Amino acid sequence: MEKKVERFLASHGFSLHGKSLAVGVSGGPDSLALLHYLWTVSQKSKLRIVAIHVDHMFRGKESYEEALFVRDFCQKRNIPFEMQQANVPEYIEQTGKSSQLAARELRYSFFEQMMKKHRLSYLALGHHGDDQVETILMRLTRGSSGRARAGIPFIRAFEAGFIIRPFLNLSKQDLESYCERHQLEPRRDSSNEKETYSRNRFRKIVLPFLKKENPLVHEHFQRFSEEMETDDAYLTELTSLKMNKVMEKTKEEVIITIGAFLEMPMPLQRRGIKLILNYLYEEQPSSLSAVHIDSIFSMIRNPHPSGSLDFPSGLKVIRSYGKCSFQLRPIDSQPYEYKLYGPGSIQLPEGGVIIADYYSNQVDEQQGIVSFLVNIEETGLPLIIRTRRAGDRMTLKGMVGSKKLKEIFINEKIPISERDKWPIITDNVGNILWLPGLKKSSHATEGVEVGKLMYLHYKQ
Prior knowledge:
Elements: H1 2-11, E1 20-24, H2 29-45, E2 48-55, H3 61-76, E3 81-85, H4 88-95, H5 99-118, E4 122-124, H6 129-142, E5 155-158, E6 161-164, H7 172-181, H8 198-213, H9 217-243, E7 247-249, E8 253-257, H10 258-262, H11 266-280, H12 290-301, E9 306-310, E10 316-320, E11 323-327, E12 337-340, E13 344-347, E14 353-358, E15 371-375, H13 376-379, E16 383-386, E17 393-395, E18 402-404, H14 405-411, H15 416-419, E19 424-426, E20 432-435, E21 439-440, E22 453-459
Parallel strand pairs: 1-2, 1-4, 2-3, 4-6
Antiparallel strand pairs: 5-6, 7-8, 8-11, 9-10, 10-11, 12-16, 13-14, 14-22, 15-22, 16-19, 17-18, 19-20, 20-21
InterPro entries: Lysidine-tRNA-synth_C (IPR012796), Rossmann-like_a/b/a_fold (IPR014729), TilS/TtcA_N (IPR011063), tRNA_Ile_lys_synt (IPR012094), tRNA_Ile_lys_synt_N (IPR012795), tRNA_Ile_lys_synt_subst-bd (IPR015262)
GO molecular function, one term: ATP binding
Protein name: tRNA(Ile)-lysidine synthase
């Protein structure tokens, strides 16, 4: 077994020599074998280790006795030891989190504290090849995508250091045999026999079948995991380069140009969506799965120009014409209304400015849809600058009859997210005169004296 571990570490370019490690030890066969192995090589490799144990207080006296067993094991070998009794049942009641998630959070929090206290760079955990098989199968079964399907990595960043798992190429039986050979007498967690946990069901039902088909199945799954991890790392890097050309982002929103995005190869499209979700979610919800990503593709490939999706934790995905917006905290557009009594400027919430002045022959009134002349003798003052309302209609210059603002926005392909904050200029009785940047009404100013005209200009 020792040779297998040496070869595995060497294949990852990792040496134990001179390292400082926290070792997570439950007292079971896997973690006890890891602690013993690292202890046996510590002198030769100038390795500094500290054993860390967390009693989750699920099993009362039984779990406390396991903590004392690990303490005594370390004392006999002069291994520094730290332990904590974490009241996980109480934490579950306070947070409403599942037992497994609650236990993990408290456990890793203690690991982090001890690494800082002892100035340790690595946290070594006893996950093995059978754990890898179970993890990959569980993730595939629940619909995980991307790198998550690769399972447990040999090394990953953890706070200011790293987590390493030196036993991922070994089977559970390898570790049981190691414990027996060295007479370690590990403790057994009775909860590992309960089929209420999905991992235990995979362990007791699925894994024995796979082992019967191929006793070395754990090695093949580990190879699959490493290939998936390296392939995904390369494709993710390539995706980042491509996505920078098709998206714009703020802290709480990412917008992609759909046409350019769909020109990317499909493996990059999928990773592109994952990158967006990883960017917006501080902590990705466990309920988020490949099904959600598939729903995004269904929406952006749909011939209908608009649509929206509600994702976990308040994320909203909105498709509007050629754009798709991902908003973690969708900004509700607040309606506004300003009154313009004469020359001056109005700063609008969406960032634009309406500038008003009396008309003079020196002003160019032919500035298209960003400027407008108003016959104030006909309209009176004040002019109103507001957001749209239900049923809004306007008469368009050069057309007979009126048209709904909703239809104008659709025809001009204005994204849904922008329609509720678009400025509308009306007279003081509500007749719509101008949609800045879009359309002018049939309001006439020909032949009106210069002194009775007001010049409006819209700057974005």
